[in-house]
Amino acid sequence: MSENQHIIDEPSERTIRTRTVKYSGYVIETAVEEYELNEDTVLTRDVVEMPGAVAVAVLNERNELLMLNQYRHPVRMNLWEVPAGLLDIDGEDPLHAAQRELAEEADLRAASWRALTDYFSSPGATSEAGRVYLARDLSELPRQERTERTEEESEMTYRWVPLQDAVQLVLDGKVHNALAIQAILATYAASARGFEGLREAAGGWDFHPYMGHRRQKPQTFR
């Protein structure tokens, strides 16, 4: 057995002594947690609780990746991205969420879905976890089934980018969205292997701190 087969991220529960919520909003909750690293060490850390997200690498029959441009206010930039969204609907299956985002943001559906990568967006600060899916065998939604895009999404523009060109955009530092970078590089790696060995799109969310049922969302200690 290869030594690399033993490399896998694993749950590691620690005792939380205190937890004080500093802010609770629609999507984000921030808290200060005091926890036991081990029997001799107690640490205090800021924690940002977020529900998680899904993203979709959309690849057409010409080996082109769909990229969309959207304004992102926290960084004051228009970014080239892939379809993505938060898991902010209670009880929604993540694969269904990805399919919904593809329909809402790109007016497309896909007959073929696979899991590309699972991730923690910034595990030193936030609980946000998610998955990047690969969607192929595309078809356009009928006009009557399309969603009217509002707010920042109303300004979206789109481009089909040859996959190899998208990789070069990442290496040239022209694409900065972390999910887009994951989607581009993972799709390129998968294509080099003829898309063999990719995981099924459904299930497999044990890595997620809440959907994996390792623990319930922390309550506030007083």
What does this protein look like?
The chain has helices spanning 94-106, 163-171, 178-192; strands at residues 16-24, 29-38, 41-49, 53-58, 64-72, 77-81, 84-86, 108-120, 129-140, 157-162, 199-200. The termini are far apart. It is globular, with a radius of gyration of 19 Å. The chain has three helices and eleven strands. The protein has 222 residues and is an alpha+beta fold. The strands form three sheets. Strands 7-4-9-8-11 form a five-stranded mixed β-sheet, sandwiched between helices. Strand 1 and strand 2 form a beta hairpin.
Summarize, please:
With 222 residues, this protein is of the alpha+beta class. 17% of the residues lie in helices and 38% in strands.
Using brief descriptors, characterize the structure shown.
222 residues, alpha+beta, 5-stranded mixed beta sheet, 3-stranded antiparallel beta sheet, hydrolase activity
The level of helicity is 10-25%
Low-confidence stretches: 216-222
What class, by secondary structure content? alpha+beta
Strand order of the largest sheet: 7-4-9-8-11
Keywords: Hydrolase
Pfam families: NUDIX
GO cellular component, one term: cytosol
Organism: Rothia mucilaginosa
